[in-house]
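This follows on from our talk about sequence and fold. Go ahead and set the record down below:
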Amino acid sequence: MAREHDGDKDKPLYMISVAAELTGMHPQTLRVYEQKGLVTPGRSRGNTRLYSQADIERLNLINKLTDEGINLAGVIRILDMRERQLERDDKIERLQRRVRELEDEVHEFKMQQRIVALARYEGQGSEQVMRGLLESRSS
């Protein structure tokens, strides 16, 4: 669920009482949301719930959506769609980076081809070199 660059946001830090205060929710509400799969806090070695900053942000979004009259089933669907969109955004970002890398490689390859083509025409007149370069570019 976590995005790659959100590492620190996913670190479980806040006990349920602190999370409840930060979100303005009752601790029992947080337990219900966990039971319904809306949030999955980490656990300490003593099995205490620990909420991350990402969990707090998610709970605040849930709070906002329910305040707007959306029921929990709707909230679950919205959160699922939001997560899928974030995953798509990450994938698009990775693909765009890869396209830029490939464009750079293609540019470098074309430059190498031109250098090789120039070397082939060494000792010839400039007009012959230009004609040869234009012919090699079109093929």
